[in-house]
Amino acid sequence: MDREKEEKRYKSGLLRSLWPYNFNVERYTYTLHRITGVILILYLIAHVFEIYHLALGPAAWQQTMALLGSLGIWEKIGLWIIAGSALYHGANGLRLILNEAFGILLGKPVLPEYPYTPTSLSRNQKIAIYVIVLIVEALWIWAGIYLLWGLGII
Amino acid sequence: MKVRIRRFDGQKEWWQDYEIDAKPSDTVLDILNRIREKHDHTLAFRQSCQMGSCGSCGMVINGLPALACQTRIGELKTESIRLEPLYNYKVIKDLVVDLTDFVNKHRSVKPWMIRKNPEELEEASMEFQVTPDQNLTFVQFDYCIMCGVCLAACPTVAIDPLFLGPQALGQAYRYIADPRDEGFEERIEVLDDSHGVWRCHFAGACSYVCPKGVDPAKAIQYLKKEILKYRLLHKKKASVKPAELVQKAPPANAPKPPPFDFKIEGGE
């Protein structure tokens, strides 16, 4: 049984799932989508916990704000990562909705001819991914500048 | 050339290195046969047709699942080769994996033609006409040779062993898209499940590694679209018109065509 567990661990698991090396661009977007999703869930839990302190009265809220303020630049870096996660997860999510619910960017079924190039991973799909990456990067850089400006660094 | 193989004897696993003379035109399967013939007869791997038709020799070559008989040494462009059994499967020995789960998943989506009237099969006097355009809607997914390479590449199968996987879902769509099939409602119970079609998040790795160009990722996305249509709009297979019944053979009283004249003009 231990042998089977060990074998299973080697052949599959979370690391195998998130390791996109050697594969297609879409698999990289998959990995990033998972990671940003987890970041957003953790943020949501922390955010609910933060808002919960409002119900405990002004003193508790001030205390929570003071605690967050004491983190200094790390709070801003955290917010910047969350902003990037939300931007990427949202934009890539829209692409996936187009794929899954409407069948857009997939291409029509074709007769496979060698060398096989899957139409679902074709040029249109790649263009959509690169456009998403460009928009997300631009907005993420803007968010970073905005946060640094808020700190008075620039 | 150095060939590194992940070995497993049922008890322990280890990496074993071999030094082999290889030409760029050799396939990985040629190399494996050479190792077994001249260096190590205990090495286990599956093979049959050696031409990419049977799907027996699926394995992970330099980190990417592929068929050994279709991968040439020259195209790998590396000094050494690393061979492993297919990921996400239980290993039986060396490069041989247990395909039981894979076949069971395939069977669970009922990959055969389902008709509501069973008499059609017993006393068939008519046949269905499928136009070339209708044929194109599913024939790509019919090319699957069940090599299991797509499941080894799928990141969802790696974390959810109960996920049906690209092969089974692709085959489900192949029959659902077929205008002769009437089994959509029967299959949807398996497909619209927590381990069914919605576990796929379109990493596309299955289509990327498929050695026959089947593009299972596309089939799965189309399957999601059909299920959404069915659940939200109560429409099924709206994109494909049903096949028409045509007469299988001419009636008995029909005039017979004239016999074919075998005489060649100008001959004796």
Task: State the main characteristics.
heterodimer, A: about 150 residues, mainly alpha, 6 helices, B: about 270 residues, alpha+beta, two-stranded antiparallel sheet, 11 helices, about 30% helix, globular
Outline the structure in words.
- With 154 residues, chain A is mostly helical.
- In chain A, 74% of the residues lie in helices and 0% in strands.
- Chain A is built from six helices and no strands.
- Chain A is elongated, with a radius of gyration of 21 Å.
- Chain A starts with a helix and ends with a helix.
- The relative contact order of chain A is 0.09.
- The mean pLDDT of chain A is 89.
- Chain B has 268 residues and is of the alpha+beta class.
- In chain B, strands 2-1-5-3-4 form a five-stranded mixed beta sheet. Chain B has a two-stranded antiparallel ribbon with strand order 6-7.
- In chain B, helix 3 runs parallel beside helix 8 and helix 8 crosses helix 11 (216-233).
- Chain B is globular.
Offer a concise description of the structure.
The complex is a heterodimer of chains A (154) and B (268). Chain A has 6 helices and no strands. Chain A is mainly alpha-helical.
